[in-house]
Amino acid sequence: MRFLPDKFTTALIAAIIISSFLPVRGQYAEWFGIATKIAVGLLFFLHGARLSRDAVVAGLVHWRLHLFVLASTFVLFPILGLAAGWLVPGLAASAFYTGILFLCVLPSTVQSSIAFTALAGGNVSAAVVSASASNILGMFLTPALVGLLFAVRGNGVSLDALESILLQLLAPFILGQLLQPLIGNFMRRHQKPLSLVDRGSILMVVYLAFSEAVVAGLWHSVSWHDLAMMISVDVVLLALVLLITAYGSKWLGFSHEDQITIMFCGSKKSLASGAPMANAIFAGQNVGSIVLPLMLFHQIQLMVCAVLARKYADRKLKLEAAEATKVTV
């Protein structure tokens, strides 16, 4: 069962299938687009309101760990993404390469990074800070890196895209942070029902993006070869980053707990941030093909990291049992 997609991933797949056969069109697409923007603004407002400042301050002492995670997220990934375009034949011309590069400049996840770190016995407080810092900095770094990487390829980010990011994503996030002392505890206590807003807004973005892509002829212009190549690149990207973060943190002398935190936080990419950002940054383009590599990477990282976290947890239990036996003897 551990290899089966979760309910949210199943819902994402359903959104793609429905949009492929029943895409929203015309005036309805415009109305749905306005509703999606409102939902995304609410999503980033909730992100800002839930982020505890106490947790951020408590974990700042692990600056070397956070620097390693940020370097993995915003330096290592983009370098590997560019290298893939140069080394993999035909990838740079693929409809999905823009999505792969976009994936590489996104921030880390928050919930799954912390959950896997806790399950594996890593440094949870450091994971909270690293994942949170990655998402905060990602509000600025992701658009900047998109502009940098796509300038290398002869493209760029328009002023309209930057304005959309500021108004639709950054402004609600800052408002949520300003109100966090007043409503933060309420938001964290009711995180489960409020998560419906998170997931609902992402589903709206995915349905709208793939509807526009289907209307523009996505499935007629994309080959099975492109799909297979994109999935392979996703898998290799994740494998390389997991290996580099695991052995790199060990080589630099981090504790076992910190190594776990670096590996799980430094290898993730956030669908919750990525789908809305793609909708804002690439407005008017084929957002469906840009989001698809991220959606697949999201599911791959969940499956692989779940297995790794369980192995770390089992190893920890065995070590504790061995220590207890020594004490008893």
Automatic annotation (TrEMBL):
The keyword Membrane applies. InterPro entries: Na+/solute_symporter_sf, Put_Na-Bile_cotransptr. The keyword Plastid does not apply. GO terms for cellular component: plasma membrane. The chain crosses the membrane at residues 7-22, 28-46, 67-88, 94-119, 126-152, 164-182, 202-221, 227-248. Gene3D superfamilies: 1.20.1530.20. Keywords: Membrane, Transmembrane, Transmembrane helix. This is Bile acid:sodium symporter.
